[in-house]
## 1
Amino acid sequence: MASFTIFLLSLLTITTHATTTSLYLSPKTLFPNYNNMLNSFKIFIYAPPPSTTPTLFTTPQQSHFYTSLLHSPFLTQDPNHAHLFFLPFPSSTSTRSLARHIRNIRINFPFWNRTLGADHFYLSAAGVDSSSDRNVVELKKNSVQISCFPTPSGLFIPHKDITLPPMHSFQLITPSVNDVNGVNVTYLGYMKLTAGQTPSNLIEEISDHPEFIVEYEPVSKKENKKEKYKNSRFCLFVYGSDMTWMVEAMASGCVPVVITDRPIQDLPLMDVVDWSEMAVFVGVNGGVKGLKRVLDGIEKSRYERLVESGVAATQHLVWNAEPQAHDAFHMVVYQLWLRRHTVRYARWVEQ
Ligand SMILES: *[C@@H]1O[C@H](CO)[C@@H](O)[C@H](O)[C@H]1NC(C)=O
Ligand SMILES: *[C@@H]1O[C@H](CO)[C@@H](O)[C@H](O)[C@H]1NC(C)=O
């Protein structure tokens, strides 16, 4: 197993404070409903397509989700007791093989035809592309897709699909009061880019601005990096680029700022937490001036709330080697649980 997050349970205490109401979309129903899930949720797994490569999944968060599910109490051997059906297949599966696989599922089991796939789900790192094949169309339109965040544009269907939070190993640095109050803050915003990433005009403007700091990975002096992002009020991310350390930033009290040219619909835990309570979303068009205006305009009380909610939300976004209550694995399963009441289509007589 690769790297896993080191996570301190002390964070749990934060969520019980008054701010809870603003972090969750439905704070009253979330935990009772979560407990119902623990007691009742049953998932049936189909066998992967034959002649599949030994590694089904290529990203660590997918593999981890899959392994955790296989070892979880949510599985059932009896499909008649299942709320949802899981179709494992490698992300590299060609559209043709996928179509054949779904056709076999349709012919060999009674479950697909009942809902045309709506009570089925699958993992696909970058999302399944559209196709004219009926089987793939039904998979894409009806089944719940679990992809990795961020998902390429057009390959995610809001309200139906789910993303896996990024997996990144980090050591939790609990933010100090000074950090939160901005006493020791050197920079307004910190941005980390992967080596070789072509900077856009906006990134160049940000690099040139004295209140922002942009560094390229790998950052040579590790200590240096830590200080710089710890001493920044905001951590900047361009939506779609490498956002793997966003959760790490939140955990250490650096408020994520997501720079985007369109509304983001594929945030992890989108129907559990209120992202506007822990991150700031800024358009690209205002340039660095617009960015600075938005960040400067955030009042102290709101900033403190953003930090606190972000730190509190970390527990739901981290992957633990052994899944723990309310962690990323369980919250993704919870989102599946929310999707168990699927539309059951009337039987159509085909022409
Ligand atoms: C599901 O419906 C298709 C026609 O759309 C049919 O060919 C297939 O046999 C059905 N599957 C089962 C298990 O009855
Ligand atoms: C903030 O600055 C003060 C004085 O320079 C220092 O003693 C303190 O350790 C700093 N706090 C942090 C969190 O860096």
## 2
Amino acid sequence: MRFNENLQRLKTYEAGKPIELVVREYGIDEKDIIKLASNENPYGTSPKVVKKVQENAHKMYLYPDDSMYELKAALAKRFGVSAEEIIIGAGSDQVLEFCARAVLNEHTSVLMSKITFAMYEIYALQQGSKIIRSSCYRHDLDEFYDLYQKHNPSIVHICTPNNPTGDAIDKEYLYSFLEKVKDPLVVVDGAYMEYAAYKDPKKLIPPRELIAMYPNAIYLGTFSKAYGLGGMRVGYGIAQKEIIQQLYKLRPPFNITTLSLLAATEALKDEEFVQRAIEKNFAQMDRFIHFAMQNELEFIDSYTNFITYLLPQNINAKDLANALLRRGIIVRDLSSYGMNALRITIGTPEQNSIFFEKCKEVFDEYKR
Ligand SMILES: *Cc1c(COP(=O)(O)O)cnc(C)c1O
């Protein structure tokens, strides 16, 4: 059997550990497990969304409306764009995949930050494309520009706020880069934009303005993070019609489920819920900053619902993550990104208190 050669360079993506796995492998009761590993909204989704899905559960035998009329209309209204400027994906991940397949092949390259969302590389490698990375995890767009001139990449990935580091760039800084970079598709991934916009309005990249000024840009958003719908798999891309039309050729029919469409549309109606969750997120973030300072840990100033602790040499990220796992706490160890660091999703006040307690327990053990 002959597989596509591009697969040889690929490893299977390792997603955050699910609660079920910790139950099975560590024999810990499900109710004692705290998952702070995948940046879900710990407050869940709006109760109105849950109600809507429950009321419509019997409709699961029906194929969804493949035009996604309602959700697109709601997004169009929210962002002040037209429905033809929107594509919906099974998570913004699927839109990323469409972008890669639309643009890349064995003769192209993709530019991204040294440490950023792992799927950019995976989709590019699937197409046989070359990966160019900057030397710093922060988006140093001067360096990006140098690399752009040198390698002429077909896609440039800008992840702001960046996952797994949590830092974000100013809108004006991005725009000054885009002024000079007219050729590649520039993918602006705003998976955590709702959080960043709350903390600092300068970080907000409005999709309508972005695509009006820069026809080679596409903005990606998702319902998986602030909207609390990770399990429903809904994301979107916003770009000029010419780009969206090309991406549409790659979209499988019915790529979003009937109930997911309803959930996302309903979620957009309860902005209040999302804003409350974001406020609580940053109030809890202060506790994580305080904890880091108390324990002499460095951290990256975060514009998201997670924080990245940079660990000293004597604490190994993998060991610490495992020690926490044995105590029922799932966090993301960043060693596979080449960083001795942990990424921790900001949980509810109760979850965070337990995290601090268990983390302290492990640190005290190290000291002995
Ligand atoms: C979570 C995430 C996504 C996509 O999530 P979906 O669930 O596929 O919508 C995209 N980009 C970044 C940076 C993320 O953290």
